[in-house]
Give the backbone structure.
Amino acid sequence: MSRHAFNFHRFIAIVLKEFIQMRRDRVTFAMMVGIPMVQLILFGYAINSNPKHLPTAVYAADNSPFSRDIIWALRNSSYFDITREAHRAADIKQWLAEGTIQFAVTVPVDFSRQLLRGEKPDLLIEADATDPAAVGYASATISQLVTSVLNRDLTGPLAKLRAGGTPFNLIAHQHYNPESITQYNIVPGLMGVMLTMTMIIITGLAITRERERGTMENLLSTPAHPGEVIIGKIIPYIMVGYVQVFLILVASKFLFDVPMLGSVPLLVALTFLFIVANLAVGITFSTIAKNQLQAVQMAFFFFLPSLLLSGYMFPFRGMPGWAQNIGECLPLTHFLRVVRGILLKGNGITECVPDLWPIALFVAVILTIGIKRYRQTLD
Amino acid sequence: METSAFAIDVCGVTKKFGSRTVVNDIAMQVRPGEIYGFLGPNGSGKTTFLRMLCGLLKPDAGSGHCLGLDFRTESSEIKKRVGYMTQKFSFYEDLTIEENLDFIARLYAVPQRKNAVEKSLARLGMVERRRQLAGTLSGGWKQRLALAACLIHGPQLLLLDEPTAGVDPKARRDFWEEIHKLAADGLTFLITTHYMDEAERCHRLGYIAYGNLLAHGTVAEVVRSAGLTTWEVTGSNLPALAEKVRHRPGVEQVVAFGTALHVSGRDAEKLRLSLAPFMGNEHHWTQIDSGLEDVFISLMETAKDNFS
């Protein structure tokens, strides 16, 4: 019995050995400290579920003191940043589709005349509601904001207009997702998230595994060209990626009734660029990682900001500028815009271009690093 | 293109990792059909030299030919004609024997691939086990599979890096039988090993330490060139005798071989004078031919003094 009792010296021996090994694996050690730090910073500072300073366009067809005051009030509220002024109604439609603005306020032609006659003119507020969380709070404030501004203007003989509730008729259009169904936003986005996760981890592992098991040395001693090795290893995973895309599209359609306004073949084609971007990250990680564990850790290190800063989980425009800048560098951010744009907004290739070139640039940069680090020889 | 009568004909081969010279100015000539044994302590540069020959590493200096091709500039052509067997088993453990052979055959674009794989399986005696995962094979079988995979594209030169490490004596003997048969058919071998019995089965040897080629030639030539004199002593209390003899002038090594002690030195006369006081009735002394192992240990000791 006593022979099998818990022995303190043996226990200490194991503990010490674990610490020594932990210290030797510097990447793992860095990740153990780095990942909590990244999480802390991202959750602590970057994430905000009550987004403010949303880019807003104004189309003031009626250039009156009233409309100027409305614009001024919006500008002064912390929710809206007037970034553009439209001269045609079509401008607004295009900007919403591109995603360059979140809100648009249209003051119709004879707004002030109708207002003064007590005819309750329409004030049109349009929102890009693909992500319902991004517009909820701001939408709620608009009516109150405009009313309080006009009430201040409607003084003296005009005060009687203030009597019957709001002196205007607020028409709010929640474009692309009028019922604010969260799934419409989350489910197509999941496609990007899944591809990011599997593509990076799988390629990272596939190449480090060859090195870890010593089979890479054998492969390099054959006439196989590095390009043949890399591309040959990637193709099967591109197919895996497309299986995932297919599954999510089928589920979106039949389980979640996600609208598919745009061209699905276009989406499938553009997805290729995104898959390539993730594979490039995986390959580059695998040239840096010494073993499979490190490859997984690096993948996680990349995945975490992708998930949090891309606008997948939290509204992109709710984040502070520095976090948005990081987000703009990540391919997932742009891919989410492409997916949501095509499926929910019915966008075509033209509206997607602004999000395609950043992904292409990302691929170019990452692949350059990867190829520089890829060793054809064992040097 | 200059055609060489040698399968391997290189000189001045040098490789540095940072400031450390791992292979220093090595020249080597191996004739077609020859089995060249490459010996040396661990970390002496044997593997690095093999890797340079098959294009896995770029040499920092050196020139020459491998199978008539410039080994510095034509490594992709050399790869097609060379089989390289790594020290560690480096085929896919999660592929079957047949799948591994088929994969390698495809990489080398072997004509009539199916046929070649079939032949290779038959030769290995693995026809019935073809669907067995390579990872489940024993050490001896893994090594046979690795050899078969190296041979599938019909190479002219095989570079084998410690092919028999961890393999049992019977499998080792079979392996060498196979090597000799293949060499008789004209295949050239460069084999690294730590086993003296294997070294003695090679046509010629090279001994490398600290990146320098210290001796080369046939077994007899290497032994002769070392100029070592060895005495064998048997009797009682040998460990105590070993301690007394070890530091006498002219004694370079004292090694226990079972119940005997080998005492060697390069200066025969000095050695004899030093040992004379111990040649009493208690022990039985005979002068013997130095063995390869005595020679290599002597070379290694000298090298340590010169290069470390």
